[in-house]
Every structure is written in C-alpha cells, then in structure tokens.
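P.,

For your records, the input lines for the assembly:
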Amino acid sequence: MTSPHVTIGSSDEMQTHWRQLASQYGSPLLVFDAKVLRRNYQELVEALPGVQLFYAVKAHPHAFIVRVIEQLGGGFDVASGGETDLLLQLKVFGRRTIHTHPIKKDAEIRTALRYGVTTFVVDSLYELEKLIPYRGRVGVLLRLSFRNLGAAVDLSRKFGCSLTEAPEIIARARELDVHIKGVSFHVGSQCADASKHVEGIETCCELMQRMNEHGGTPMNVMDIGGGFPADYNRQGVDIHKFCAPIRAALEQLPDDWDILAEPGRYLVASAVTSITTVVGKSIRDNVRWYYLDDGVYGSYSGQIYDHACYPLQVLRTGESFPSVLAGPTCDSIDVIAEGIELPELEVDDLVIGHEMGAYTAATRTRFNSLPDARLVDLGTGEIDG
Ligand SMILES: Cc1ncc(COP(=O)(O)O)c(C=O)c1O
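Structure tokens returned:
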C-alpha cells in the first residue's frame, strides 16, 4: 500500500470549520466547494484555449457538480444510460452532451439519441455496425488506443483501436454511410505528464489528414480525452504548465478543427473534502489502530478501484506513534493508511481526506449496510443523503 501524504495539525480556523460541519451535518461527510470547482474549470479553460470541455460525469455523478458545470457553460461526457438520465433529470440540454463509451447497448444509444446526444464513440467494426440504424443522426468519433504505463489508470488497455486498424474502420464507415467526424483518445487517468497527449494529438492529426486526402466528408473533430491530474502527493499541480506541451501540439492543427476534452478528475478532485470520525481504537503489536466511520468500501473506494492515495490530515499535534487508519467494515482490506506516524488520536477525533471529489463517492458500495457519507454543498448548505 502506498503511503499517503499526511498533515499533522491544522489552523484553529480550519479545525472550527470542520468540527462545525461534522456537528451540523454528521459524519462521515463529503464537503463540496463549488468555488474550487469553478476555479479548476477556469484554470483548465485558460490552460487549453479553444478546447471545448465536456465534464466526464462518471468522475462524480452528482447534481451539485452538474449544475456548476452547466452554469459555467461546460458540456458533459456520459458513458451510460444512468449518467444520461441524471442529466435528463437536471434538464441539461442534450446537445451539450457527448456519449463516449465505445461499447453500448442499443437501448442506451436510443436513450441518448432521444435526449439529444448526437456524438458517439466507437472503436471497432462491431460497434460501428450498431450505429447503422441511426446513421442520419449521429457524428462518430473513432477512439484510438495509446497505452500509457505512466498513468495511474491505463484506459487504453481496454478500449481503442490501433493505428493500423483505424483506416479499415473509417473506410467501412464511409461504405456504410456512417459519418466519422473525427477521432478520440484517452491517454489514461492521472497522467504524470502530457507527453502521451502530445503523441495522441500528433498521431491522430496525421491519421485524419491522411484519411481526409481520400475525399468524402472530412474529419475535423479531435477529442483529447482526460488524464489531467489531481494533486494527491501535495506537490502542487500547475495545470497551465502541465498543458503547455498540449497547447503547442494543438497549435499545429488546422484552425477549423473542433477540439474537445473530457476532463473528470482535475475538475472535481480538489472540490470535495472528506470528514470522517474515529469511532474506535486499539493497540495491536505496538501499532495504534484507529477505526473510522468511512473507508475503502465507502468514500475511499478510489484507493481500490482508482489506485488513488488521498492526502490525509489529523487535527491533533504531539508525539507521533506508528499508526493505521482503518475503515468501518469487517473486512481486513478496509484500511485507508498504514505505516504512518500519527499523534495519539481519540474517539470522536476527525480525520480529513483531501482531493476526494473524483472516483470516490462514484465507486462506493453498501457493504456491511453502512450508510453513505452525505454530500453537503458548502456554498448553499444543501445536503444530500
Ligand atoms: C472515456 C473517458 N473520458 C473521460 C474520462 C475522465 O478522465 P479523467 O478523470 O482522467 O479526466 C474517463 C475516465 O475514466 C473516460 O473513461
């Protein structure tokens, strides 16, 4: 298990803030700060000028977040009927949404079409054929695979066709009269740097230009996916600097192409903070074990599914001891952090988890029938759960 970044102690002001939230809304709690989401969105817009942003709803499919992205004028990237339904319930205009899952049921395609989605993604001839009945109504992106062992989650392991397969799929689409309007890729989530994005942009540009020489409706859309990182190790993420190579690569593309991105993690990770409470403690083999009311089956599920390691903070200071922070379930995998040094904590102490907005609540379970952490919108006081 990777050791998290741990902060010991906090300012009086922040201690009061977290204690008040826990006493007002209960624990475990997830605290959503729309101001942080707005700032992240604005920073990404500035880091990627001219790129249309489609928030990847899967990162945190919640009304609080969707509403802010909508107010900011952003689009949405959905990957399932459930995500489409969420936007539908919130009355988000379907034309602002793209469907990016390369594998879909026919019913899901129909739901998305009814809602107003016209952009779909395929990565094989099989998926292309599913769109034949809807060919007059869809513009398709062909997803290419770019393996990236430097990303925390290498999504091209599972999706995307190879560069050598792409011309055949594009040629077949032309025969079938299914409009392939461009290409997409996702170079993996939580990327260490932007080198794979650059490779994707350059490779896809070359492919699109080569295919455009063959005539037919030109391809002029490139979707550069997500992968923009959260600051899990607290070293600071300068998104403008991270995106500099991407900006340079995009400048080489024809001016009249539409460039899209599907950011999830970068937008929402730092906008949500977890508050959890010590509910029990013991000393086992000279190590202090603290049992919390949230864990890897709950808000910390990203530690399992997403390979994330969230920065933690305890409010006490003092002499430190070898410690373990464990979740509330009966399973021994339910450990948030071990091999860390903490001051002596007491029952009812709070433990704060930072950068907990992406792939956290989205992947939690109900194991042991424990309740979900409630989500509070800090700005409005609105509470869910
Ligand atoms: C198709 C697709 N688009 C966008 C995203 C969001 O990526 P990220 O959270 O790295 O920005 C994902 C993540 O799994 C994805 O699968």
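Two observations worth noting. The domain at 6-31+269-384 is CATH 2.40.37.10 (Lyase, Ornithine Decarboxylase; Chain A, domain 1). The two ends are 30 Å apart (CA to CA).

Regards
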